[in-house]
Design brief:
The protein is globular, with a radius of gyration of 22 Å. With 358 residues, it is α/β, with parallel strands linked by helices. The strands form three sheets. It has a six-stranded mixed β-sheet with strand order 5-4-3-6-8-7. The structure holds iron/sulfur cluster. The site of iron/sulfur cluster has 9 residues, from helix 6.
């Protein structure tokens, strides 16, 4: 006789939850998965009605499930959010071009507006051209630094209040381990937070912070979502790969290890007398930075001067790199444009005559 669902005790159990070891049916799995994400959102007060929220969408399983679940919960619980898909095209042929086709289909399937910003357009360099210049080393360093800024630039272009990303519990636990192994105190504090403030007022959060990767894969599979599952052409960051392997081994002997690490990370506090870097604005592009020139500008400087190691390992040149005639759109300009958009929107929302020209 088939095993019945541990929750409804009616339908046939087809999923064993790695998080709780319960055997449950498909409908109960959808319900508990979605409800747990909703509880994370509500308990952490992530949004307020009227927020314009961009979903960082790569076409991969995490962000595709995130887009689907955000739309479902927004409709079901009347969050009152304006949702957008925001994608970054790093310019990796055979990988990102294909995954962006998936995002374009998701745009139609979920009925959400989509903005794609590209490295080529923002920095004048695609990842393919960066790899051609620097070789197959440190690729993820360039890519990660540029992507963070690209998302913030896209958010300003859409005048968003909030960006949500598909980082799941496994990603967060890996990051905590990596920061402990590196002794990176300032990042250790930030990486456990569910929401951080990025560019000015734009909040960035991880609604899947407590969702296991295995359950996200199951959800995508059982809902038959349209997602892209090929690995990036350029090798994933080796250091994260070791942390991931270590975590998987721990999970095999203790399935709660992922959540245990997250809770341990949350419980750690940096002593008050530890000096943390203070944030300022990059003198070149205006992005938030703990140095006078932000990491992206240092990396770009290195690429343009043919010394790509600039910014990878800090050298005296980092500090001495002179001002560059930048073709980057200055963040101050993007911020002003976003504020203008916001003012126009607020005025038109306040006006009872929606067709008037005020
Ligand atoms: Fe970029 Fe590295 Fe991710 Fe590829 S694996 S998309 S190079 S960060």
């Amino acid at each position: 006789m088939p095993r019945l669902c541990d929750i409804c005790n009616d339908a046939r159990a087809i999923v064993r939850r790695p998080k709780t070891a319960q055997s449950i049916c498909k409908e109960c799995f959808f319900h508990v998965f979605e409800t747990e994400v909703h509880n994370t959102i509500v308990d952490s007060n992530l949004f307020k009605p009227g927020d314009r929220v961009g979903i960082g969408a790569s076409g991969g399983k995490d962000s595709t499930v995130l887009a689907y679940v955000m739309k479902t919960l927004n409709d079901r619980y009347n969050y009152g959010l304006d949702l957008y898909l925001l994608s970054v095209d790093e310019g990796i042929s055979g990988y990102r071009d294909d995954s962006l086709e998936t995002v374009k289909r998701n745009k139609e399937q979920y009925g959400l507006p989509l903005l794609i910003v590209s490295y080529e357009q923002l920095y004048g360099w695609s990842m393919d051209s960066i790899v051609a210049a620097v070789g197959r080393k440190n690729n993820c360093t360039f890519c990660g630094v540029f992507r963070r800024q690209a998302l913030d630039r896209g958010a300003l272009m859409l005048d968003l209040d909030h960006i949500v990303t598909g980082h799941n519990a496994d990603d967060v636990a890996e990051t905590i381990l990596m920061n402990i192994f590196r002794g990176d105190i300032s990042r250790l504090g930030r990486c456990t937070e569910i929401a951080t403030t990025g560019e000015g007022y734009i909040v960035r959060s991880k609604p899947f912070k407590y969702a296991y990767e295995k359950e996200i894969v199951m959800y995508a599979y059982l809902r038959r979502l349209d997602y892209f599952s090929t690995e990036c052409t350029y090798s994933p960051n080796a250091y994260r790969g070791y942390a991931r392997e270590f975590l998987k081994k721990l999970e095999r002997v203790r399935p709660s290890a992922i959540l245990d690490i997250i809770h341990s990370g949350e419980a750690m506090h940096v002593a008050k007398d530890v000096q943390l870097p203070s944030l300022d604005r990059c003198q070149r592009c205006g992005y938030i930075s703990s140095n006078s020139i932000c990491k992206a500008c240092v990396l770009l400087e290195g690429l343009e001067r043919g010394i790509p190691k600039l910014g990878i390992s800090r050298t005296k040149q980092d500090v001495e790199a002179g001002p560059r005639e930048s073709d980057l759109v200055h963040f101050e300009k993007l911020r002003q444009d976003a504020l203008e958009m916001r003012k126009t929107r607020q005025n038109s929302a306040a006006c009872p005559q929606s067709a008037c020209a005020c």
